[in-house]
Amino acid sequence: MPHMVIFRTADGKPSYHQAEVLNEAIRFVEHLRNEEQVNDARIFAMAEVPIEFKVQWRVELAPPPPPVVQVPVVAPAEASAADEPEMAEVVASDVPTEERADAEPAEYSELAPYDGVQTPDEVGVAAGTGTGTG
Fold first, then answer.
1. Residue that wins the pLDDT comparison between 10 and 17
2. R_g over Cα of the chain
3. Dihedral sign, Cα of residue 14, residue 15, residue 21, residue 25
4. I need a labelling partner for 55 at 20 to 30 A (CA). Which of 14, 29, 44, 48 fits?
């Protein structure tokens, strides 16, 4: 059975020495004491500890399903103004980006540059809601 000698060197650093048999470990401790003036040495018997590797399963949460959006469905030939539209479930990812409330804003490079001039529609003149000067 192998043995381990654990000791501190003369300058205080921890160290160790492995010996194959007990007599070899004893001779090494004698060498430490007689030739290197090491007073603090211990001998340990080493025995292998059997270990076993096993598969470990890990449970993770699945991502949440996309939100459901209610969209009115009206049959084109049978629709009348008095009829209530039927609601259908639509997954948010099926709705075009420009219609979704949670859609990311357009990139600045996609927007038309602002030239500082408002059109009549922007100030409400065409709709009769603006004051318009002129």
1. 17
2. 42
3. negative
4. 48
Report the SS3 class of residue 108: helix
Would you mind telling me the total number of residues written for the chain in this entry?
A: 134
CA dist 74 and 84 (Å) reads: 9
Place of tokens 């609601």: 87
Q: Pseudo-torsion of CA 94, 74, 87, 67, nearest 10°?
A: 10
Question: What CA–CA distances, in Å, run from 4 to 20, 63, 109?
Answer: 9, 53, 71
**Residue 23: both structure tokens together:** 């007599």
Alpha helix stretches (DSSP H) within the chain = 22-35, 120-123
8-state DSSP, 117: -
What is the per-residue DSSP string for 40-56? -EEEEE--PPP------
d(CA 72, CA 90): 10
- pTM equals 0.40
DSSP 23: H
